[in-house]
Please model this.
Amino acid sequence: MKIGRSLLLWVFILIPLAPLEAHATTYFVATTGSDGGAGTSGAPWRTISYAVSRLTAGDTLYIRGGIYTGSANRISDQLYTVPSGSAGNPITISGYPGETVTIQNPDGTDAIHLREASHSYITFQDLVIDGSLGTNNAISANVMIENAQDHIRFVRLEVKDSWESAVNHYPSGDSFNEWVNCRLHGSGRQPELGGVPGNTGYGMYSVANRTLFDGLEVDHNHGYGVYFNGDNNILRNSRIHDNGAITGSGQVLGTNYGVDIGAGVYPSSANNLVYNNLIYGNRGGILVYTHSANTGVYNNTIYGNLNGAIDVQYVAGDVLIRNNILLANGVNAITNNGGFAGGSIIQDHNLLTDPAFANSQASDFHLQSGSAARDAGTAVDSVASDFDGVSRRQDAATDIGAYEYSSGAAPLPPNNVRLAHAP
Model:
């Protein structure tokens, strides 16, 4: 049978219009590799910047264990192309499972810097960012996120020994960025090395909307632990301790809170939530500050901070403070420092007496069975589980503090874990 010309023409036209299947690729970098290689497991690339610039949506880059130094191992869109993923095809840049990957950025530079264009749907995970080579204040953080960067995830990063702050996070608009199970510590080395003393060296300095901070450990930073501004952010399930240092000359700084919400230079910090956190050993606990409004401070354990447990000042709207344990701080009370532009402090179901911790000297703030915090709280819709993921409530009522007493209840399935394909 002959096929007419018209049918052949339709076949010719329709075939190119069929949807093309995207093929995500897994690439590799190793200290023994070569940028002239294929980027495969058997022929890995040598430098991180070269590898990142060749990724496309859906790709995964595994970095084999080792120490990566020099500018060619920075991830910076000021120097090299940094591509974007998409909602269904994110890009993943990850340390190889079971191996330690350390990026030591050169003096006066940052290790990760997204600034020049919009980046979306990128995951950075299982990396150690080591700022110990820094000996000047040419940069303000080891990880810098600026301008229109959204849906960026940072998972199991360790950022340590920064000259100034560990992280500066300044995405514009609604970021939907996530910082999950990261450790930020040892930042603010400049006073110790003869630099300018003062209120410097934050663990996290964030100006963003709709950002999640979940499961962080933020400790031994010179300045504040977590300092954030903007709207609709959540800080939860985090251990924030031993922040706010003395200078190299022995000068004791100001309060340097473990957590600060709001600042005078930013116009709005509304609808933020801070819950299920362990905040201890800092120069101060929590400060709810300028332009904050409709702030929820729930089920935190705030213990052994040098100054105030929870201070409120210059806020623009209500501050709701419920179900918190406040013990052994310089001031255990919830302090109104004045200057309100609107709203009020609404406080209830907070415990200022000994809750019978399991072992506070070892920073174990679980509750013993006879704790006064048991069944003494009130339900908060946004706090469905505790620091360990145990469902609230276990008994007659919810417990006060970051932990719900449990005699063996299984934790809820985690809601912040995504499975990665095996390499």
User: Anything to note?
Assistant: The two ends are 51 Å apart (CA to CA).
